[in-house]
Amino acid sequence: MASIIEGYLGKRVDGTKSRMPARLDRWQSASGLFLGLFMWGHMLFVSSILISKDFMYTVTKMFEGSFLFAQPHPIIVTLSVTFVFAIFIIHAGLAMRKFPYKWKEYKMLKTHAFALKHEDTNLWMVQAFTGFMMFFIGSVHLYILMSNADKIGPFASSDRVWSDGMWPLYLLLLFAVELHGSIGLYRLCMKWGWCNGTDARAARKRLKKVKWAVTAFFLTLGLLTLAAYVKIGMEHRNDYGQRYHPTAIIAPLHLSAQEVPS
Amino acid sequence: MKIHYCDALVIGGGLAGLRTAVATQEKGLSTIVLSLVPVKRSHSAAAQGGMQASLANSVMGKGDNEDVHFADTVKGSDWGCDQEVARMFVTTAPKAIRELAAWGVPWTRVKRGERSVVINTERTTITEADEAHGLITARDFGGTKKWRTCYTADATGHTMLFGVANQALKEDVDIRERKELLSLIHKDGRCYGAVVRDLIDGELEAYIAKATNIATGGWGRVYRTTTNAVICEGTGQAAVLETGLGTLGNPEAVQFHPTPIVPSGILLTEGCRGDGGVLRDVDGYRFMPDYEPEKKDLASRDVVSRRMMEHIRKGKGVKSIFGDHLWLDISILGREHIEKNLRDVQEISMTFNGIDPADEGPKGWMPVRPAQHYSMGGIRTKPTGESPDLSGLFSCGEAACWDLHGFNRLGGNSVAETVVSGMIVGNYMADYCLENEIDIDTATIEAFVEKEEQNIREIMSRPLNDDSIFDIKRRMQEIMDDKVGIFRNGEELQEAVDELQELLKRSRKVGIRYVTHASNPELVEAYRLPKMLKIAISIAYSALLRTESRGAHYREDYLKRDDANWLKRTLVRWTDPEATLPEVFYEELDIMKMEIPPAFRGYGRKGMTIDNPLSAKRQEEVDRIREELEAKGADRFEIQDALMPFDLPENYKEKNERQGVGYA
Amino acid sequence: MPDTAQNKGRMLTFEILQYNPSDPQSKPHMVTYHLEETLGMTLFVALNMIREKFEPDLAFDFVCRAGICGSCGMMVNGKPLLACRTLTKDYPDGVIRLMPMPSFKLIKDLSVVTGQWMDGMSKRVESWIHSKEEVDITKLEKRIEPEVADATFELDRCIECGICVSSCATALMRPDFVGAVGLNRIARFDIDPHDERTAEDFYELVGDDSGIFGCMTLLGCEDNCPKNLPLQEKIAYMRRKLANVKDTGGGLEIRVEG
Q: What SS3 class is residue C137?
């Protein structure tokens, strides 16, 4: 009954307001923070290809549990991706509450952002737009990885990028993620005042610079990484489907050569 | 026809009006406040420097009390004020400020220990007592013996206005904005409310109330160069004048503030000089000590303004395309002080003049020249705030001539007056509402509304001629600036009166280009203009007739304060609506009832009075009573009561506690 | 003296929206006026000249003309500004486009209803001291630490001009959003020792998506506030505070058997 009363009257039976809006706000921020930081790590791991195929291979195996089990278990990746996908969906669901959802709102927002020429408002527009993009391209990517968790590796990934024709999607995703993530993390700091220090205004200026530096760094890294996969994919297109065999094992992981599946 | 009924009607949503409304609403009376603008935008917000109340918390205020505040106020007024009212005021002011503190006004507080201040251009260290820590502090202001002006940086009026407006919202006062008073509804000497125009849709409405309070502020905009907001056009006072019954008191008593910035005329607070800033001339020379050795830059406003103009006339002004001016130097106070305590001043100077007053040396000096600032005169009331001419009509704040200020108001006494008179008059008004019923027939109401509708129809039907409302208005303002300013003389005043009468005639004929009712600024100008002209004529004509110099009213052809002939209050009544001049008569001030009989103010020129023999007689009497009572061990309250008894509502007459001295 | 001598005599172009929603004949349209620039000209001066010379009917609002009362917020080339403080010399190309502030009800031309909006906000956040203490005004006032009084004053400087609302895309999209002005007001009473309200009390006022949790941190308020109020910092502070308000669990359901 209490829930019905609250539903209809907007007040709980003790006369107080629901704490749900606070919770949702925290969850939105927490999920965003997780995804933002996750994407930094993700990008760093994916870019391991820039060092060498063996390095990338080792990293991949590590995520399949190579440091715990004798045999790699791609199911670990499947579960991890599923978890991230779930957070992704939760974040999308919470964040879309902020979208303009009527034409009139959209029109107002667009006019205003155009006229005001205000950086943080425009950055939010970018965030909303990239967020919307990721509903789709992010989901595609996540689903493929979830269902093909065993097909991650220097050749398998490159084949996906090039021979499976995924590179345009990844290119879009790269921009969407890096812009959305770095803006989002900056906004989180502003929203909760985490980095305000004693002089909030100076801190904001510094943080804004850091934000742009981070965006530039990850975009550069991402483009180089994507180029590397494209290059490998092109070279490997005639051997599509063939898996990579490492030439060297990168320490300190306690994998031995004979344990590598063939 | 829309007719709204309420118990108490307050016209004007500034500090005085809102505080009145809180008083009546608190007593269970349904109260409506009507305002030209959203109430938090009222001109009260522009009061910068502070509010006087004798709290005596700061070390520089030690020894202050009601008596000292009273004496400063009376001297400041050049003995033109009603001393009974001044007593009511100084007794209530500490209570008002404490009430406001409880309502959330974030008064700047005393901090224990040493602090550096600038006194007479010297950096001096003063030490605040431990016991005073956390109590409300005060700064120095002109014409006061003690540091008595309490403040919140230089946005005092703003924080006070928000505090009181929020309290009115809390009390659920019915506040209606963009409503303009056109005329008062009255019958047989009793006021029943007002005809009001909605400034959005242009509709006329009648508001019927047991008591009506006019708290519409000053009339500064009849002058061209004024610190006043654009809404301060005196239409509230004009509505009283147009009843043909109500009177204005001392309209010629107009204050010119020494330091509005040139050319915009925006005020730079007296706090600039109170905190240690000084005036300089074209040579960078600090000239005020030469004229006023004792109070220097901090003599009363009338004196400082006059000395400045005198100095400019000697050729010591700074030439500019906006006319000669002088400099106000606050850079000597240091950047830290300016950015904390004189922040709005800095903002105004930087925005409008591109000068950062914290910059050291001449670079930071701000151009200033005296300009119209305050109307001491206004709707004449009794000490209860009720009109002596129309029952049920009240007035308070700058709109009124309650007569706290006489011929010159002290800085910091006007925002203080707004809330204090709001408390006092509000309570008397509430009592009036509780004791009186109204009976008025709708035919009377309709007649008043119809008269205003007829007036608007008539304006709209006028053929366009070569004349323009804006031209007439500007001309009126120029005349007031040029001929009814700081220095006045019979010849120019006569010219002013003559030409203003011509303008009044023209204003009754001038047509308007747009004939719509709703939101029509031109129409508004058209019906306000004759009202403003009536005020301007009242000022100029009263100034012409007063052949003496008193406070801010300075006649070059009658240099002396003439207590023998002019210790009286001017009263103006406009009986014939078609006339171009009002009737002027006078109300004697009774020296024999004064607590402080007329004497030298302590600043300004000496030996410039024509004494009234009664002054010495009353002084003897006062001395005798004081001596006798002191011999009997009477305290200052008992002595005061013997000299000049007065009444206050609520608990306002109770003694005020002070740090270190209790209720002594 | 204002350093505008070099601009004297320049021709300015004003494009001003004109529209009277109460007149069925009226359609919103821009009207262009040309005006010679004067020394130190502000939009207050310019608009009054336009009214006197060309358009006696032009509606706009000014009161103090000194940046203190908050009456004259309008969109100047897309940015919400206090018109009285806006100098024409700051527009090098001499083209100034004026629109009324959005998010407030339009009266006519540049005149909007901000007062009622602000009163509504004030009532919603109960913008007054809540105290059970009976104050005896004949006694010494309550002692307040000087720094705390200064901190309260810092936030009390808000002039309710509405610029934070008009520079906030959230407020424009969601008219029920309380705006930075409302959140700042909550922060102000939170600091004020006279006010006895707790975080739980404030949560009841703004603990929802049209209150503190509706703020998307676009920071238009922070960057456009003419009084330079520390809005980002204070809204973040209130957000932390209110997001962490304990859940009382909604309390027990009261059942009354009849």
A: coil
